[in-house]
């Protein structure tokens, strides 16, 4: 019996995806069909993957594509407005505003979407997650500008450090050194704080309306909770972002909050000439090319951004592992390949005029994992949607409206992160590591908390006391302590602990 099973398994391994594919009608449920698709895929690494031969488009791919598009419009807009505000304050001759921010966001949605969503993650390496936005860095952007950093210098340094870490396989090593408890605690903290932040933003929006319609925020949140709970009960949580975002939009319109919504962004193609954006101090960013001093000012922020990639990537890969069936290792995102794509995308996207700080695309990966879909189909659809919306322009005005954007981020990112973190905490050892990780994150920030608890956990000081016996000296001492010191040094250099504890920036 075992011999027959091994023979059948070997035969399956030798057959291609197209030979193993079976129509959905042959399966008892849609979920079984999607599980089978994940188990038979054999994506080609840095080689051409074709629809039909290596993967298929399914209507479930639309969910992460739409979710990722809504999320990235919101993130890109926030990044560019932060750059505009910070640079305008930092430089006497610079005057950037909303029009500049939307134009740069459209540049980011055109060229990088084509090259790194459609081409890189869609056709060339479906194990590399899409290169999206580095959310935790957004609050720091104004400070980065005031510190004298240059967006192009920052992008070049992030790309260089990212490629170096990817070449050394450092990203995957750090992920493997993070235990279940530490990862669970990190996700719980990020999920909880993210949820509270989005809820607060919805309430601020409602109270800011004419007549202080605070009750409208409560109605939007109540309907969101009900819709999300029903979808969870039906096993359809992957529909949460489109359904909840649309419900938030409709409720706001019905209550009269959106009749003053103005579609300001006109149809067209933004300026795609890099010389316009970086060639002078009167056009584009009004900064010209970076000098040595601006590279030095950008250095600690670049180190910090790359140091924060590993916990970000870890959370996204965990989502796949929690939602995919067994025997799907071949379609899980590769951390090092994702780091390579993010690094190249960072340099190319900024060189052509963009300003995004990139990371693994969470608003795409989390819904894709819940919907049990691999990366390529949704990546191609998402890239296509980004290109269409960047050209049309006006959908960006709807996507950044608080009852749409905040609800989408709440149900598409924050709540799933919270749930995934709770699922990972399975025993007292995990709960101890998770609890200390959450506590450390509350005292400092999630990146430093991850580095600290990873070092403690790998040495048996918290969590599983047997864990150190399975690790080498480098994995117990050298790597965790080095990561902790690098993160701490970068944060002290850029003043990340100044607001909480009054420790001024060293640079």
TrEMBL record:
The chain crosses the membrane at residues 62-83, 104-124, 144-167, 213-231, 238-259, 292-310, 375-394, 400-422, 434-456, 476-497. It comes from Alginatibacterium sediminis. Keywords: Membrane, Transmembrane, Transmembrane helix. The keyword Transmembrane helix applies. This is DUF3360 family protein. Residues 1-20 are annotated as: Disordered. The keyword Transmembrane applies. InterPro entries: DUF3360. Pfam families: DUF3360 (PF11840). It comes from the Bacteria.
